Amino acid sequence: MDTPAAQWRVPEVRLLGSTLTAGAAMPFLALLVVGIVFPLFGGGYWGLIATRACVYWVLVSGLNLIVGFAGQIAIGWVALLTLGAYTTSVLAAGNAMPALPPFAALAIAAVAGGLFGLIIGLPALRLRTFYFAITTLGFATIVTQVALAWQSVTGGGVGVAGPIFPQPFSSQWGFYYLCFGAAAICTWMTANVAASRFGRALTAIRDAEVAAEASGISKPGLLTTVFVFSGALAAVAGGLFASLQSYITPDAFTLDLSVLFFIAILIGGRGSILGPLLGTILLTVLPEFAAPLVAWSTFLYAVLLLVIVLAVPGGIAELLDFKNRRPLESHRAIVPRPELLHRLVGTAPDAGALTLERVALNFGGVRAIDGLDLEIRSGQVHGLIGPNGSGKTTTLNVISGYYAQQSGSVRLNGAALPVLARHRRAHVRIARTFQTPRIVGSASVLQNVMIGGTIDGRATFAEAMLSLPRHRRDEAMLHDAAMLALATVGLERLASVRADRLQHSELRFIEIARALMLRPAFLLLDEPAAGLSAEEIGRLGALLVAIARAGTGLLVVEHHPDLIFDICHHITVLNLGKMLAAGTPAEIRSHREVVNAYLGG
Amino acid sequence: MVESIVSTGVAIGCVYALIGITYNVMFSASRVFSFTAGTLGMLGGVLGALFIGHMGVPVALGFLLVLVAGAVFGIVTEIVAVRPVLRSLDQHLYVLSTLALALIVQQFTAIEWGTDARPFPRLFDLARGAFDQQFWLPMLACAAVIVGLELLYRYTLVGRAFLAIAEDTYAARALGLPERRLRMASYALAGAIGALAGFAGGEMLLAFFGNAPLLTFYGFVPVALGGMGSNRGAVVAGLLLGLFQQASNFLVGGIFASVAVFSVFIIVLLVRPEGLAGTSLQRRV
C-alpha cells in the first residue's frame, strides 16, 4: 500500500549509492568527467596546477565540514597540512627510524592528523568563536617553529625530500590520477556526510545551537568526530602535497595557505559542497592567469575575504541557488491536519508524569523561581501563565536543562532528571520550542524538521559517510517522518523552501513539527501563539489539543488567555517565581487574585 | 643569566601586555575582539624603522608619526571591519572581517617592506648595558599606558563615557552618549597603544611583517588568561607569559618553549574558559 508520505517524496537518483537529487549531482558528474579526461588536453604545467587543486581539495573538503557546516572558525588548518607533509616525508625518508613505504607513511600521517585534529578541536567545545580561531592560529605558528627547530628530524630550514609514490603513481599523470581519485572520494564522502543527519546536525550547531541541543544532538561528540576526520584528510593532503613539491621546507607552509583554504570555503558558501569545490579550483587556478599578480595573491584573497564577508555572506552557493529565488505564494494559510498525528507519533503508551518538586533558582539576588511545584500529566495540556518576569520561561529552561535549579528536583515518573544535561532531554522524549524560533535559516524547511529526528537514526558517522544501507534506511525513515510532521502542521507544500524565507508564524509551526519528530512524551511550548493571527491561534489550539489527545503531555507558556482557557486541562499561575494559583480553567477564571493581578477585571 | 631572563622576559611581557590592552580597549567599546591587534604591533615596529631608520626623521617626530598612523589604522578598522558587522545578525562575522583586514595590511607590508626581519634603529644614543634601552623602553611604555588609561578613565569625561559604553552600550546610548564617535575614539586610542607596543619593543622584535600573527596570538594570551576587558589582568598575565617564555626558552630550548606556552594556554582555557581572573557569564536562551 502506498502511504501518503511516500507520495510526497522527491524523485531521487541513487548516485554511487548516495542520496543526491539528479539536478544536484550534475555539476559533480561534469567535474568528474573533466577531471578524468583532463590529461588528454592539459599540458605538463597545467597538470601540476590540476594536481595541486586536487590536493588542496582533499584538505578543504574536510575543513569545509568544520568551517562551512559546523561554523567553527579554524583559521590555522595549514598546521595539519604541515604535520601530514612532514610525517609522511620523514617516515618515508627514514630520518627518524627505518624508512617506510610511502603509502604506509601516508597512513600513519593520517592517524597523526586525526589525533592532532582532535587536539586542536578540543577548545572549540568550550571556547567562544574568537578564542577558538586564535588557538588554531597559535597552533599553526607553533608547528612551523617546531619544523624549523627540530633539525635532526625535519632538516630545519634546509628541509626534507618529499615521498615518491611507487609505480604507477610515480609519473606525473599517475600521480595526478592518485590525487584526483583522492579528491573524488573526498567529495563523495563529504557530500554523503552533508546530506546525512550528521550534516544537518552540524548546521544546527552552527545556526541554532540551543535547538540542536534540544533535539538531542551532542555537540562534543559530533564535533570531535568531525575534527578527527578532517584532521586525517588534511594530513593525507599534506603527504600528497610533499610529494607534489618533491622537497619541503617550513617556508612552504605559511599562513597564506590557511587563508587560501579558508577563503575557498567562504567564497563557495557555508553549508555547501559544490561551492567550496569551485572556490578551491578558482583560487588555485586564478593566479596562473595573472602572473604579475602572484606576489599579490594573498593580498587579493584577503581583500576578497573582506568583500565576501561584507557583501555576499552566502558565497557562490547562494548565487547559484536559483530555486530559492522563485517568489513564494503570497497568501499562504497554515492548515494543520491533526488527523495525521496518530501515524506520526503512534499511540504512545501512558508516559506518566513530569513533576517539579520545590524547585528554586536565583539569578544573583533575584528569585526567579521560588519553590515551585508542578505536575504535567501525559495526555493533558498544562498552561503556565503569569506576568512578564514571573518565571515562566525560566521554569521551562530548568525542565529542559538550560538552567540548574539550586534546590528541588525535576522528575520524570519519579526518576530525577540530571541538571544541565540538555541534550539528554531528547532521549527521554522531552521536546520543546522556543520563544524566538530557533531554526537553520539556510537549510530547507524539510531539513529543519528532520533535525528533530536526529537521535532516531541508527547509522554511525562512518556508515553515513560511505552511504551504507543502514544510513539510507535512516534517511528514508527521517524523510518520511518529517514530511508527515510537516503535513500534520500544514506546511508540507513549503518543504523544499529555504527556511529563512518563511513568515514568522510559519516558523512557529516548523518548530512544532521538529519537536513532533521526537514523538515526545512531553512537549514544552514557549509562547507558541506569539505573532500569530487570531485564525492561526485557533488552528494552533486545535493542533495542540490533538497532540495531547495522542498521548503527549503539554506544558504551554502563553500570554493569550483565550488560547489558554480554551485548550488547557490545568493551569498554573505564576507571580514573582511563586505559584499564585492553580486549577482548572474555570477555577482560575474566577480566582480573585489572578483576575486582579493578571487578567484584569 | 637569570638577570637576562628576567629583563628580556619582563620586557617582552610588557609588549604582550600592551597588545592585550589594545584588544581590551577595542573590546570594551564594541564587544569585538579584533585580529588587527597584533598587526598594530607589527606596524609600530615597521613604521618606526621606516620613518627613523630609513627616512631619517628625528626620533620624537618619528614616534609621533607612528602613534598617529596606529590611531588612523584603528579608525579604519572601526569603519571598515567593525561597524558594518555590528549591525549584522551573524555576530561571528567580525572574526572574519577583522582577520581579512589584518591580512591585507600584513601582506601589503610583506610586499612593500619585504619579508626579511630588518633592524630597528636605536632610539637613544646610550651605551649598551645589562639594563639596555631595548628592555626598559617597553617597560616604560607599559607603565605609561597603564597610568595614562587610569587617569583617563578616572578623571576625564571622555574616559567615563568610555566606561559607560563598556558597561552597557544600550543604556549609554539611551543617555545620549555619542556611541559611534566614542567607539571610533576607542579604536584610535587602541591603535596608538598597539603601535606603541611595537615601537617600544622594536629593537627586540625587529621590523618584521611576520610579527603580526605572533603578536596577535601572544597578545591574546594575557587577555584570555587575565579575563577579557581587564587591563590589570592583562598586565599580570602578560608579564608572567614573558617570563615563562624566556625561562622555558633558556631551560628547555626554543621549540619546547613555544609548545609549553601553547599547552599552558589551552589547558588553562579548557579548565577555566573565563580566564584565571574573570567571572563566567550566565548563558541566555
Can you give a write-up of this model?
The complex is a heterodimer of chains A (about 600) and B (about 280). Chain A is an alpha/beta fold and about 600 residues long. Chain A has 3 domains: about 280 residues, ABC transporter involved in vitamin B12 uptake, BtuC, CATH 1.10.3470; about 160 residues, 3-Layer(aba) Sandwich (Rossmann fold); about 80 residues, no CATH class. Helices cover about 55% and strands about 10% of the residues of chain A. Chain A has 25 helices and 12 strands. In chain A, the strands form 3 sheets. Chain A has a 6-stranded mixed β-sheet with strand order 8-9-10-5-11-12, sandwiched between helices. Chain A has a 4-stranded antiparallel β-sheet with strand order 4-3-6-7, covered by helices on one side. In chain A, a hairpin with a 2-residue loop joins β11 and β12. In chain A, α4 runs antiparallel to α5, α4 crosses α11 and α5 runs antiparallel to α11. Chain A is elongated. The N terminus of chain A is likely disordered. Chain B is an all-alpha fold and about 280 residues long. Chain B has a single domain, classed as ABC transporter involved in vitamin B12 uptake, BtuC (Orthogonal Bundle). Helix content of chain B is about 75%, strand content about 0%. Chain B contains 12 helices and no strands. Chain B is globular, with a radius of gyration of 18 Å. The N and C termini of chain B lie far apart (about 55 Å). At the A-B interface, α5, α6, α12 and α14 of A face α3, α4, α10 and α12 of B.
